[in-house]
Amino acid sequence: MISIAEDIAALKWQVEAGADEAVGDTPVNAFELVAKQAAPTPVTAPTQSTPQASGSASATVPLSLESTKAAQASASALASAATNLDELRAAMAEFDGCALKHTASNLVFSDGNPKADIMFVGEAPGADEDRQGKPFVGVSGQLLDRMLAAIGLNRDSIYISNILPWRPPGNRKPSPAEVMSCLPFIARHIELIKPKVLILVGGTSASNLLDTKEGITRLRGRWVSYKVGAGDDIREIPTMPIFHPAYLLRQPALKREAWKDIRAIRDQLAEE
User: Fold this and answer.
1) Distance (Å, whole) CA 170 – CA 142
2) Are strands 159-162 and 224-228 parallel, antiparallel or unpaired?
C-alpha cells in the first residue's frame, strides 16, 4: 500500500520534472466550480488594532521582494560588466545574492563547446552535477546525451548550461526568488555564446527565459524567438523548449513527443 509520504514524494518529483497539468480520473463539473467561485466571500472589517498603510509604496512591498530586486540589480551589474566567459564565471562566484551558493558544493557553470551553434539551458544542478561541477552528468544527462547522439550531436558539438548555477537542497524546485536573482547571469551567458539555436530544457528554464506562465507541456515542440542585445543591436534566436530528461525517465510514453522535438532541432540546425 502506498503511503502518504510516498504520494507527496511522487508529487514533488512531478513538479521538479516540469509537469504543470493535472488530469484526474473522474470528471469535474466545471459549472459547479464556477458557481462556488462566484459565491461572495465574507470580508471581516479591520479592527482598530489593525495597522493601516502609511502611504509609502515600500510599506506594501514584502521585504523578500525588495531583497530579490536588490539581488537581481546586483547580478545585472556584475553580468553586464563581463566581456567573456571567464569574467562571467568570476562574477557569478563573487555574487552573494542567492542563498543557494552557501549550501551547494560547486558552482556549475557549463560544459561543451562554447563555439557550438546550439546552446542548451537546463534548470538547476542535481546531486551529481553539484559534485562534479558540470551540468547534466547524472542519469538524466546520460539520457540527453543519447537523444543528441541520435541526431549526430555530442558534448563537443553543443554548449550547455543551467538557469541556476547552484543546486537547490534536496533537488527541490528552485523558488521564483532564486531564479529571478540569477536570471541576469544566464541572459548574459546566452549573449556571450551567441548561439544560432537555443534549446530550453524543462519548465523552469522555458517559462523564465521566455517570460511566460505557460507550462512545458504547452510550450514544448514550438519554435519561438529569444531576443538578445539592445537598441539597434537586437538579435532573435530560434528557440525551442523541450521536456527535461528527468521527466522522460518517469514518463517514457512521452519519449515519442521528445523524439519529434529532437528531429525538429536537427532540421533547424540544417537550415542554419
Assistant:
1) 20
2) unpaired
Q: Which residues pair with residue 239 across a beta bridge?
A: 198, 224
Going residue by residue through the chain, which has 272 residues, state the pLDDT in tens, using 9 for 90 and above. Answer: 445 554 555 455 444 444 444 444 444 443 344 344 444 444 444 444 334 443 333 333 344 778 899 999 999 999 999 999 999 999 999 999 999 999 999 999 999 999 999 999 999 999 999 999 999 999 999 999 999 999 999 999 999 999 999 999 999 999 999 999 999 999 999 999 999 999 999 999 999 999 999 999 999 999 999 999 887 789 999 999 999 999 999 999 999 999 999 999 999 999 98
Exposed e or buried b per residue across 261-271, where buried means at least 16 C-beta atoms within 10 angstroms of its C-beta:
bbebbeebbee
Domains and CATH numbers, the chain: 63-271 (3.40.470.10)
- Note the pTM of the prediction, 2 decimals: 0.76
- 186 neighbors 166 (Cβ within 8 angstroms): no
Dihedral sign, Cα of residue 250, residue 254, residue 260, residue 264: negative
- Beta strands 111-112; 159-162: pairing state: antiparallel
What is the separation of C-alpha 52 from the centre of its chain, rounded to a whole number of angstroms? 38
What is the Cα–Cα distance from 94 to 5, expressed in whole angstroms? Answer: 39
Strand 224-228 to 235-242 pairing:
antiparallel
